[in-house]
Amino acid sequence: MSPVLLLALLGVTFPLPGVQALFCQFATIQDVWNLSDLPLRWTPKNTSCASGMGCQDTLVLIESGPQVSVVLSKGCTEAKDQEPRVTEHRMGPGLSLVSYTFVCRQEDFCNNLLTSVPLWAPQPPAGACGRVGRRGRGCQ
């Protein structure tokens, strides 16, 4: 029996060039925090994706009054690669939504968002906009 056939019968597989499996960060969070708890930081686990799959990060922050609802999903996906995208909707004081999506295949653990810092900047205290705004920074 040929060595290649024997290895195939034993379940040994060899990755095909260009279709290599990725390792991605994996985590899910769905919870509500006080705004004072932000920014958040999480510690993901690692997962091995099926061949051809990419790594993804999805984070949604919904502020409602003094609380923020957080939905995080990190792991493997079949979706096409997507550059990091941030979408922000502010509907007045105390109500806003920020979402982040990213799909990658360029290297293992490329879905490396570990904190809400790049997406969540606390609003300045009431009355501070006029003072800061005159210096050209802060409120808009």
Automatic annotation (TrEMBL):
Which superkingdom, per the lineage?
A: Eukaryota
Chief subcellular location equals membrane
Q: Where is it localised?
A: Cell membrane
> Which key words are in the record?
Cell membrane, Glycoprotein, Membrane, Signal
InterPro entries per record:
Fert-Immune_med_protein
Q: Which GO terms describe its biological process?
A: cell-cell adhesion via plasma-membrane adhesion molecules; cell-cell junction maintenance; leukocyte cell-cell adhesion; positive regulation of neutrophil degranulation; regulation of integrin-mediated signaling pathway
Q: Which residues form the signal peptide?
A: 1-21
Q: Which GO terms describe its cellular component?
A: plasma membrane raft
| PANTHER family, per database record | CD177 ANTIGEN
Q: What is this protein called?
A: UPAR/Ly6 domain-containing protein
Q: Which organism is it from?
A: Nomascus leucogenys (Northern white-cheeked gibbon)
Q: What is the lineage of its organism?
A: Eukaryota, Metazoa, Chordata, Craniata, Vertebrata
